[in-house]
């Protein structure tokens, strides 16, 4: 008998009467991280990893009750021991480990392997049941090492500066933008932020994460020379009147979808950098091997492909159909953080 069951509201634990990453408001939510497609607004009580505190408090309703646990600490609810373990997705992201009478089940939330200066790295958690995302669950998705991509972004900035242009780099407001900021070389020029990005960055700073000096675009009034600068903005700002102030620009999108031919053209940007906070195909397979579950539930993205591959490899895997996100999970996430993006700038 499993600890978790799937319902129309999401993954539910009847023993403790709580949901993990519910897709609608519930009384008690255990959340893997602060993105709004996992941490739903309107729940009465939230349980999450301590490093996500500033992000969650910034985004949730004022009358919600919060409880936070350090990574590795546990709490028992209805006889189920709950603990959080680093997921490497964004600041405070966690795998949710549930244990009852010796059985262990893990909900990965969103995750990636490898080092990231803005959050703790993913750690394998051995389990009987593993619930994993498969946003980029195709062999074509293989990420380059971060230093390679970071060097490419900084080189693009230098080249654009030599041409007298302002760079505008698009990344999602929470997580992606801060990871991009951490990789920028501030010696090249000034760094500016869209309001949504600045809000998320401030939460990172409050959490003790080092960020380069940034200037909020909206704080600058009157005539200003933007040439040679770097603006980190949310994707929804592209093509809006907000962009006019920067003059001649070179634009770029940072996304895992940039690995697909034609993605840059569809986004109508000058450059595309392959940067994702989700596992690529090799890392997905590596994570499953390291956690070594008896059963894998695969959700989001290319779940049918991943489940079929795992079954062919001798593992027991099945697709967990959800309505929380679409096939293009990371594409859809570009506008998930609407509450942070509609700050009058766009």
TrEMBL record:
Top EC class for this record: hydrolase
| GO molecular function term, any single one | RNA endonuclease activity
Q: Which InterPro entries match?
A: MBL (IPR050698), RibonucZ/Hydroxyglut_hydro (IPR036866), Xnuc_lig_assoc (IPR026360)
Q: In what ranges is there compositional bias, type Acidic residues?
A: 328-346
Q: Where is this region: Disordered?
A: 316-346
Which SUPFAM superfamilies does the protein's record reference?
Metallo-hydrolase/oxidoreductase
What is this enzyme's EC?
A: 3.1.-.-
**Cell membrane: is it a keyword of this entry?**
no
Q: Which UniProt keywords are listed?
A: Hydrolase
Highest taxon above the source species: Bacteria
What NCBIfam families does this protein's entry cite? Xnuc_lig_assoc (TIGR04122)
Name listed for the protein in its UniProt record: Ribonuclease
Q: What is the native source organism of this protein? A: Rubripirellula lacrimiformis
Lineage at the top is: Bacteria, Pseudomonadati, Planctomycetota, Planctomycetia, Pirellulales
């Amino acid at each position: 008998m499993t600890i978790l069951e799937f319902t129309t509201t999401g993954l539910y634990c009847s023993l403790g009467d709580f949901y993990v990453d519910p897709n609608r408001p519930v009384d008690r939510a255990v959340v893997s991280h602060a993105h709004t497609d996992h941490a739903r607004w309107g729940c009465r009580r939230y349980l999450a990893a301590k490093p996500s505190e500033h992000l969650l408090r910034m985004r949730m309703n004022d009358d919600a009750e919060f409880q936070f646990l350090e990574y590795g600490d546990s709490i028992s609810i209805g006889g189920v021991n709950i603990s959080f373990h680093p997921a490497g997705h964004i600041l405070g992201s966690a795998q949710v480990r549930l244990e009852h009478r010796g059985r262990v089940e893990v909900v990965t939330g969103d995750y990636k392997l490898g080092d990231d200066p803005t959050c703790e790295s993913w750690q394998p958690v051995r389990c009987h049941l593993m619930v994993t995302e498969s946003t980029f669950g195709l062999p074509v998705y293989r990420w380059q090492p971060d230093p390679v991509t970071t060097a490419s972004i900084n080189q693009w900035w230098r080249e654009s500066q030599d041409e007298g242009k302002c760079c505008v780099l698009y990344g999602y407001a929470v997580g992606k933008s801060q990871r991009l900021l951490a990789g920028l070389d501030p010696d090249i020029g000034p760094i500016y932020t869209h309001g949504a990005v600045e809000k998320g960055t401030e939460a990172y700073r409050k959490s003790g994460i080092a960020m380069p000096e940034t200037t909020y675009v909206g704080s600058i009034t009157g005539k200003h020379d933007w040439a040679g600068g770097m603006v980190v903005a949310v994707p929804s700002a592209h093509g809006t009147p907000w962009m006019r102030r920067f003059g001649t620009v070179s634009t770029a999108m940072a996304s895992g979808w940039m690995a697909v031919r034609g993605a840059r053209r569809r986004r109508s940007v000058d450059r595309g950098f392959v940067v994702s906070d989700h596992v690529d195909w090799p890392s997905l397979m590596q994570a499953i091997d390291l956690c070594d579950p008896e059963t894998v539930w695969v959700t989001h993205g290319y779940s049918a492909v991943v489940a079929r591959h795992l079954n062919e490899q001798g593992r027991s895997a099945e697709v967990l159909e959800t309505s929380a996100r679409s096939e293009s999970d990371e594409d859809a996430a570009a506008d998930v953080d609407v509450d942070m993006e509609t700050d009058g700038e766009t």
